[in-house]
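INFO batch 0412 | record 1 of 1 | parsing
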Amino acid sequence: MAKKGRKRSTHDWAPIRASERTLVPFTPHAPNALALAYANTYHVGMSSLALQRVWDLVNHEPDWSCERFFTDGEGVPLSVETDTPLGAFGAIAFSISFEEDYVNLLRMLERARIPARRRDRGAGDPLILVGGSCAMINPLTLSEFVDAFPLGAAENLLPALLPALSQEKRREAVLERLAAAPGFYVPAHHSPDADGAFHRLHKLELSEEQMRRPGHLPTTAIVTPHTEFADKFLVEMSRGCPEKCKYCWATFGMGRFRWHPTEFILEAIERARPLTDQLGFVATAVGDHPEIERILAEGNRLGFRTALSSVRIPAVTEGVLEALWASGDRSITLAPETGSDRLREVLNKPIPNALLLEKVRMIFRQGLTGLKLYFIIGLPEETDEDVQAILDLAAECRAIMLEELAPSGVIGRIHLGVNLLIPKPYTGWQREKMEEPTVLKRRIRLLQKGVARLPNVDLGTMSIRQAIWQTYITKAGADAAEALEVAATGKPLAALLRHFSDRIEPEVFARSTGRLRWQFLRTA
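INFO prediction complete | emitting tokens
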């Protein structure tokens, strides 16, 4: 299926290859090969533990090799491992975690001279697969472009996918086989029945029982300095979340909270020692692992510097903070989501400000100097007073910071990260509409003016246009294909939203009623 005579990319992967340290052997001459593509740059894609997990699992198969592709460079995309063109593979598996990367998928196919629409691809073209959280949230948006969507954990899907790719000679036979297998959505075979409903497909997530068996702990397979988590060995701590916040897909779509056994995590840390002295623990609720303090302490004993992804407020303990301090970490991230207790109750996160401020005092008393607080605006029942409450809460956190850090002579910094509500499928607010732009602009200005009066506090906000676009493509059906194709040409977002306003605005600014198109998928 190789594409011959195409202009090759000018991007040089040799320096990247030379800087990578791998735990998994790569066999370039295996009988079967899978292209694994991340629809963004190497810097972003290699931060994805999901991508690294698939690469790890496939390359552990004796008859398979897996080669990575990213958006870096121009011309035909080439693999990091062997500089092989993207179109030379019989199947390309994309891992997509962010809806904004949909257009990058189309651009990568165009650069490889692979027809974007599945109806235009023939026997000589690769099969296009898309997995990852976006596929599990709503695969319909990309269904005009993608041949098959693996839905769930790679451990549960590769045992059906890889034999189908290696044993079937025709693309149609591969798709027929996948359509009959649990956990795959194949648009050419799964269509609505007479009353508009799809056959209900089940996502194959990792179960608690699986997570307690050896071999099911996702970790970094390749350590690299050229990524968001430079030189860090990442370890997944758990899946799901103890909370059921109405805005969050992970807490509903990933099933109930469950964690990996401590002994597996400690064994993984030991394996990382020859590669790096930096650890990163990641999960939706990383601090809720029942033995988090022991794990952090063991990492410190072995000489690692350790970082955590966002920690749930109740999971902040003196033991966790002491371990982070001892490892050299000086910042922590919390997600209050709102400034008022009332609105936090509305979104089903009943954590009072009093508890948050108690944890903030613990953080700065320990000597940490950086605090990131994540908020969402545009929530149902939100008022301007709730937005002002974000500023009031930030001021209280700042006062605590100055008081606790004064003896050290150090002034810390507080960052407020403010996103806009994206009502995603499979959340408690999946039927809600996005807040009107005029209201959002007024509330963002309120925050900007307030933060300007708070020294050592800074603010980052999400683009309203980007939020409108993301809301549309996270909830849309196959009729979004034309808009995605136009977006992939580089049309400015403002012009794109105007051009397709008749499709976008009803999806974004009206509350959804009746049957929701994505509900043919069963959640975990």
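INFO post-check: The radius of gyration is 23 Å.
INFO record closed
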